[in-house]
Amino acid sequence: MSENDSDPQLDAYRRSIDNIDAALIHILAERFRITQAVGQYKASVSLPPADPGREKRQIERLRKLAEDAALDPEFSEKFLRFIIDEVIRHHEQARRK
Q1: For 48-72, what is the HEC assignment?
Q2: Is the pTM above the cut of 0.85?
Protein backbone atom coordinates (compact mmCIF):
# COMPACT_ATOMS: atom_id res chain seq x y z
CA MET A 1 0.00 0.00 0.00
CA SER A 2 1.42 3.40 -0.98
CA GLU A 3 1.07 6.65 0.96
CA ASN A 4 -1.62 7.80 -1.49
CA ASP A 5 -3.80 4.72 -0.95
CA SER A 6 -6.64 5.09 1.47
CA ASP A 7 -6.81 2.63 4.34
CA PRO A 8 -10.39 2.58 5.66
CA GLN A 9 -9.40 1.37 9.13
CA LEU A 10 -6.67 3.99 9.48
CA ASP A 11 -9.03 6.66 8.17
CA ALA A 12 -11.62 5.69 10.79
CA TYR A 13 -9.04 5.88 13.58
CA ARG A 14 -7.90 9.26 12.34
CA ARG A 15 -11.47 10.61 12.19
CA SER A 16 -11.94 9.53 15.80
CA ILE A 17 -8.66 11.20 16.79
CA ASP A 18 -9.71 14.38 14.95
CA ASN A 19 -13.04 14.41 16.81
CA ILE A 20 -11.31 13.95 20.16
CA ASP A 21 -8.81 16.71 19.34
CA ALA A 22 -11.69 19.06 18.51
CA ALA A 23 -13.43 18.18 21.78
CA LEU A 24 -10.20 18.81 23.72
CA ILE A 25 -9.83 22.26 22.17
CA HIS A 26 -13.42 23.18 23.06
CA ILE A 27 -13.02 21.86 26.60
CA LEU A 28 -9.76 23.79 27.06
CA ALA A 29 -11.39 26.95 25.70
CA GLU A 30 -14.23 26.62 28.22
CA ARG A 31 -11.79 25.90 31.05
CA PHE A 32 -9.79 29.02 30.21
CA ARG A 33 -12.94 31.17 30.00
CA ILE A 34 -13.74 30.09 33.55
CA THR A 35 -10.20 30.49 34.88
CA GLN A 36 -9.99 33.97 33.36
CA ALA A 37 -13.12 34.90 35.32
CA VAL A 38 -11.44 33.45 38.42
CA GLY A 39 -8.37 35.60 37.71
CA GLN A 40 -10.48 38.72 37.40
CA TYR A 41 -12.28 37.88 40.63
CA LYS A 42 -9.01 37.21 42.47
CA ALA A 43 -7.66 40.55 41.25
CA SER A 44 -10.79 42.38 42.39
CA VAL A 45 -10.57 40.96 45.93
CA SER A 46 -6.75 41.12 46.13
CA LEU A 47 -6.11 37.37 46.20
CA PRO A 48 -2.78 36.08 44.89
CA PRO A 49 -2.68 34.69 41.33
CA ALA A 50 -1.39 31.29 42.48
CA ASP A 51 -2.80 28.91 45.09
CA PRO A 52 -0.09 26.29 45.72
CA GLY A 53 -2.29 24.27 48.09
CA ARG A 54 -5.07 23.93 45.50
CA GLU A 55 -2.55 23.16 42.77
CA LYS A 56 -1.07 20.36 44.88
CA ARG A 57 -4.53 18.91 45.60
CA GLN A 58 -5.51 19.12 41.94
CA ILE A 59 -2.34 17.39 40.80
CA GLU A 60 -2.84 14.60 43.33
CA ARG A 61 -6.50 14.22 42.31
CA LEU A 62 -5.73 14.15 38.60
CA ARG A 63 -2.81 11.75 39.02
CA LYS A 64 -5.27 9.35 40.70
CA LEU A 65 -7.80 9.85 37.92
CA ALA A 66 -5.06 9.17 35.37
CA GLU A 67 -4.06 5.96 37.13
CA ASP A 68 -7.71 4.85 37.22
CA ALA A 69 -7.99 5.58 33.48
CA ALA A 70 -4.75 3.71 32.65
CA LEU A 71 -3.07 6.98 31.62
CA ASP A 72 0.49 7.72 32.62
CA PRO A 73 0.22 9.89 35.78
CA GLU A 74 3.54 11.59 34.95
CA PHE A 75 2.13 12.71 31.61
CA SER A 76 -1.09 13.90 33.23
CA GLU A 77 0.87 15.90 35.81
CA LYS A 78 3.02 17.54 33.12
CA PHE A 79 -0.10 18.39 31.12
CA LEU A 80 -1.86 19.83 34.16
CA ARG A 81 1.25 21.77 35.22
CA PHE A 82 1.38 23.32 31.74
CA ILE A 83 -2.27 24.40 32.09
CA ILE A 84 -1.80 25.67 35.65
CA ASP A 85 1.24 27.73 34.64
CA GLU A 86 -0.76 29.33 31.83
CA VAL A 87 -3.68 30.06 34.17
CA ILE A 88 -1.33 31.71 36.68
CA ARG A 89 0.12 33.82 33.87
CA HIS A 90 -3.42 34.97 33.00
CA HIS A 91 -4.16 35.69 36.65
CA GLU A 92 -0.97 37.76 36.93
CA GLN A 93 -2.04 39.75 33.86
CA ALA A 94 -5.48 40.36 35.38
CA ARG A 95 -3.85 41.59 38.57
CA ARG A 96 -1.74 44.14 36.66
CA LYS A 97 -4.79 45.66 34.92
Answers
A1: CCCCHHHHHHHHHHHHHHHHHCCCC
A2: no
